[in-house]
Specification:
Length: 191
């Protein structure tokens, strides 16, 4: 007797084979196939109230890179992607109604001068461009770009205000946001 689990797995494999043959016949690129599957998974989850299946932003980074003509970074640390000029870039994603960017979990140093050096040399300014991407139902619906210098100039004063007391918090790391208002004022819409 064949188990229900084996039947289910065979049905899924058969469906995957049919879909792959259809996509091949349509001539879709690997990137286009990825976007299609990503959006389909998000839609299915939304229709069934399953929550965001992409809660970690890596798959969103991949979608953004494909849509913006960038190359996705091979690692999870450091740059999220490489732009067309070979420069490392940073991505921030949201599912909210308005585009914004959260910079969270920033390592804290003992003195402010060391903190500024870290922000300048490791965390913000190494990335020529910072992209703020907004998704709806798994689809990238808008993307805004700001320079690393613009992001640095906005975040440093916000982080400085929190610096003196951050080590007394339950999560002793710095965080700050680039707001929708700041993105609309200083950013350039690229999608």
């Amino acid at each position: 007797m064949i188990s229900k689990e084996k039947i289910r797995k065979e049905k899924i494999r058969e469906a995957q084979d049919r879909i792959e043959k259809l996509l091949l016949a349509m001539g879709l690129t690997e990137e286009e196939k990825f976007v299609l599957h990503f959006e389909s998974m998000a839609k299915l989850a939304e229709e069934n109230n399953w929550g965001d299946p992409h809660s970690y932003a890596r798959s969103k980074e991949q979608i953004a890179a494909f849509m913006l003509g960038h190359t996705i970074s091979a690692t999870l640390s450091g740059a999220d992607a490489i732009n067309g000029r070979g420069e490392e870039v940073e991505y921030k994603s949201t599912n909210g109604k308005k585009v914004k960017g959260s910079y969270t979990g920033i390592s804290v140093f003992i003195i402010w001068a060391a903190q500024v050096r870290y922000l300048r040399e490791k965390k913000i300014l190494p990335y020529a461009e910072h992209y703020f991407n907004r998704f709806e139902s798994g689809r990238l619906v808008e993307s805004w770009m700001m320079t690393g210098q613009q992001v640095y100039d906005i975040l440093v004063p916000k982080l400085k205000k929190k610096f003196a007391t951050v080590r007394t918090k339950k999560d002793p790391r710095l965080s700050a946001n680039i707001t929708n208002k700041e993105i609309l004022k200083y950013g350039v819409r690229v999608l």
